[in-house]
Amino acid sequence: MLAKIEINNFKSFDKSFVFDMTDTNPFAFSQECIKNDIVNKAIIYGQNGCGKSNLGFAIFDIISHLTDKETVSKYYNNYLNANNTNKKATFKFTFKFEDSVVEYIYTKTNYQTLISEKLIIDNNIFASIDREKSSVFETIAKGTETLNKDLGDSNISIVSYISRNSILLENKANNLFKQFKQFINGMLYFRSLDDKCYIGFEQGSHLIDHDIIEHDNLSDFELFLNNAGINCRLISKVVDETNNIYFRFDNKDIQFFDIASSGTRTLALFYFWYQRLKNDGGISFLFIDEFDAFYHHSLSRIIIEKLKKLKNTQIILTTHNTSIISNDLLRPDCYFLMYEDNIKSLSNSTAKELREAHNIEKMYRAGSFGK
Predict the structure, then answer these.
(1) What are the E-state strand segments in 133-217?
(2) Residue 304: exposed, middle, or buried by beta-carbon count in 10 A (0-12, 13-18, 19+)?
C-alpha cells in the first residue's frame, strides 16, 4: 500500500509537500477504512486551486516510467513549479507491504526525463543510479550478477530494466521488488470531468456501451442506475457493427449518451471501472478526482458506501462537497483537508478529542479544524 508521498518542485508544489497516510488514530468505528496501519479509504477536501488534482498527477507520475499502462501527457505540461529555480522535480514514495517498507525516490527534469533513481527495500539500497554522474547503475538484486548495468543514453527506469531483463532469484528483497511492481501496475486514476481520461491499469480507449454489453452487464447496469435513483429501462442495439445502449421508452428508443445527463454519464463511467474493482480485477490503488462533481449529495454517499466494501483496493477521492464529511461514512483520520502548502487529516487538525457521535461537518463549518 502507498503509505506516504513527498513532492518537491512539481507543478503547484514549490517546496516539500508531504501526504502521509500512516498517522492514524485508534478509532473503534469504520475500522475497514484502515489497513496495515495505513489509511485505506480517504477523501480529500479542498477549495479550488489548492492542488488536489496536482496531487493525483504527482502520485501517478510514477506510471509513465515504471509501466506501459495508459498515460496522459497533457496533464504534465508545466511540469516544474514556476516559482522554483531548481531544474528537477523530486518524488519520494513510501510503500508498506505487511511489515516491510519499500521507498522509491527519483528526480526528473520533465515528464519523460529521469535523472536519478533509488529503490530502498527495508533500509537497504536495492538499486540506484544518478545519471548526472554515471550511466551505470548499482543493484544488490540476486539474479542480476551478469546483467549489463551500463544504460548508456537510454532513459529507461532501472526498475523497469531489472524487471524486464532479469530472472530474479527467490528471496525476500526480490519478492518485495515484485510486489512493488505489481502494485504500481494495478494503479488507476480517472476523473469524471469533461475529458474523462484515465491513467494506469490498462491501455487504450474504451467504449463504455460496448464494454458493458460485451461483459453481459447491461441488466446489472440498469439495476445500478435504478438503485441510484435513475428510473430507466435499457436495451442494446448494434449500430454500424458497434454495440450501443439505448433508453427504452413507451414509444421510442433513444441512444443512452444522446440524452443522458452529466450525472448519469458520470455514473456510467464509474460503473465501467467499478466492474473491474468489484470483481477483484487487480486494481491495487484508485484515485478519483472530483468523484462527485455531477452527483447529488445522497448519490455521493451511495458511491462511497460501495467503494468502502472493496477491501483489496486503496482508494482516494477528491471533492468539494462538505456534506459527505461524516463519521457515518469514514472516520476523522480518513478525511483530509488540503491547502496549497500542506494536507492534514481532520483528527490532526484539531486539539479536540473526536468521537463517533460528533457531527464533524458542523464542526468543520464552525472552523474547528483550523483555516
Answers:
(1) 138-139, 187-191, 198-200
(2) buried
Task: List pLDDT tens digits, range 320-370.
Answer: 888 889 999 999 999 999 998 899 999 999 988 889 899 999 998 888 887
Domains of the chain: 2-201+283-365 (3.40.50.300), 204-280 (no CATH)
User: For the chain, first and last CA: distance in Å?
Assistant: 30
- As given in the structure block, the three cell numbers for residue 40 are 485505506
Q: Which residues lie below 8 Å from residue 355, measured CB to CB, with a gap of 6+?
A: none
* Cell numbers that stand for 122 in this block: 527495508
Residues 6 or more apart whose CB falls under 8 angstroms from that of 305 comprise: 329
Residue 292's contacts (CB-CB under 8 Å, 6 or more residues apart) are 192, 299, 300, 303, 317, 319, 321, 324
pLDDT in tens, 58-82: 999 999 999 999 999 999 999 999 9
Which are the contacts of 27, defined by CB distance < 8 A and separation ≥ 6?
331, 332, 333, 354, 356
The H or E element that residue 58 is part of is: helix 52-59
Contacts of 17 (CB under 8 A, 6+ apart): 6, 7, 8, 51, 55, 341, 342, 343
Phi-psi region of 132 (alpha: psi -120 to 50; beta: other; left: phi over 0): alpha
Rounded to whole angstroms, the Cα distance separating 41 from 342 reads 19
